[in-house]
Amino acid sequence: QSALTQEASVSGTVGQKVTLSCTGDSNIIGSYAVAWYQQISHGAPKTVMFGDSLPSGIPDRFSGSKSGTTASLTISGLQPEDEADYYCSTWDFSLSAVVFGGGTKLTVL
Amino acid sequence: QVQLQESGPGLVMPSQTLSLTCTVSNGSISSGSHFWSWIRQPAGKGLEWIGLIYTGGTTNYSPSLKGRVTISVDSSKSQFSLRLASVTAADTAVYYCARWTARFDSWGQGTLVTVSS
Questions:
Q1: CB-CB neighbors (< 8 A) of B48 in chain A
Q2: How many angstroms from the chain centroid is the CA of residue A75?
Q3: Strand ranges, E, within A1-109
Q4: How would you write the pLDDT of chain B (117 residues) with one tens digit per residue?
Q5: How many Å separate Cα B4 from the centre of its chain?
Q6: Which residue has the higher pLDDT, A101 or A93?
Q7: By CA distance, what is B111's nearest residue in A?
C-alpha cells in the first residue's frame, strides 16, 4: 500500500480542466514539496510539476497546489497528448525515504 | 542536460544478485547537491523507489528492500551501481536510474530485468 493515495483513474474531454489529487499524512504532504511525474506508454517518467513550480518545457496549462494533506495537479485545457499515467512523490522524513503514490491513469476522451 | 544510461544483465537467476550500473554523461556526478537514485516498475504496476546515494557515500534505502540492496558510486567513472541480493520473480521489473534534487529531474530510459531460471 502506497504512502500517498491517488485516484486510480480520471478522464476528461479535450479542453476540459481536470484535477488529480495526492493525499497523505500531514507529516509527509505537509513537510516537503510534492513532485508530479508523467509517464506516457510506460516510457521514462518526466517531471511536470514540483510544488507549484513548472519545470522548463512543461506547458503552463499544468499547475500544482497543496492544501492540508492533499497535493493537486491541475491541467487546464486538457490536450490529447496529456493522456498518461501520473505519479506524485515526495520525501518522507520519518522513513528517510522517497515515497510514490500508486499513480493515476488519465484518459482524454 | 545530464543524461543517464542503465546497463547490466537482462536475465538473473532466482536467489542470485541483480547488478546494474548507471552511467552519467553531460554533467558531473560529483557536482552540486544531487543525489543518485534507483527506481523500479514491475509490468503493469506503479513506480517503486529503491534507494539513493550522495557522492560522499551517504545512502538511503527503501525500508521494504533494506538488507538486500546496496547502492555504490564510482565518481572516477561517473557511474553509480545497484546490487539487489537474493532475487525472486517479484523483483522482475524495469529498473530506472535517476538524479534526485528534491525531485527526480533526469531519468534513464530504463532497463528490463527478468528473474527466471
A1: 100
A2: 10
A3: 5-6, 9-12, 18-23, 35-39, 46-50, 62-67, 70-75, 84-92, 97-100, 104-108
A4: 899 999 999 999 999 999 999 999 998 888 777 899 999 999 999 999 999 999 888 999 999 998 999 999 999 999 999 999 999 999 999 999 999 988 999 999 999 999 999
A5: 11
A6: A101
A7: A44
Three cell numbers written together for B84: 539487489
Supply the pLDDT for residue A3.
86
On the question of pLDDT at A31 being above 90, the answer is no
Residue A1 has pLDDT above 70, yes or no: no
Copy the grid coordinates of residue B117: 531460471
Q: Are A93 and B52 in contact (CB under 8 A)?
A: no
Q: Are A50 and A58 in contact (CB under 8 A)?
A: no
- Give the A window 29-48 contacts with B, CB below 8 Å: 32-33, 35, 37, 39, 42-47
Using the beta-carbon criterion (under 8 Å), do A98 and B100 form an inter-chain contact?
yes
DSSP A4: B
Closest CA to B39 of B23, B61, B18, B11: B61
Alpha carbon distances (Å) from B108 to A43, A48, B5, B51, B112: 10, 16, 5, 15, 12
